[in-house]
Amino acid sequence: MTLRLTAAIFTAAILAAAPAHAAEFRDFDQAGFAAAQAEGRPILLDVHAWWCPVCASQNHTIKQTVMSPSYDKLIVFRINYDKQKPVWQSFGVRKQATLIAFRGRREVGRLAYMTNKDAITALMASAVR
User: Fold this and answer.
1) pTM of the prediction?
2) Domain count across the chain
3) For a Cys-Cys bond, which of 17, 74, 86, 104 suits 23, CB 3.0-4.6 Å?
4) Is 64 exposed, middle or buried (0-12, 13-18, 19+ CB in 10 A)?
5) CA atoms within 13 A on the CB side of 37
């Protein structure tokens, strides 16, 4: 077996083992966010810090929740708490681990510094209803 074929088989195995997410995950950018709002898409803003254990717990819940096909239109925009301060401040956020749900241009809910799976799931569901 050639090295190229071995690499292709290995890559295919990794992709097959990786969980599929129905939602789209993107780093926050104003143009992308505005376009998603204009399309009326369900949106979750995730104000995230790499060093935050609450953020990590929220991320785990988000990734589990979006496995459902009902989240196939959801876009999760991650706002970097350390590098995008003006952005998160523009949404009235005070600290990392804040999640904000939108249905198009309308904010439908938010949670701050919470890891309760039911609350996070309910917030996300409010965006896709």
Assistant:
1) 0.84
2) 1
3) 74
4) middle
5) 15
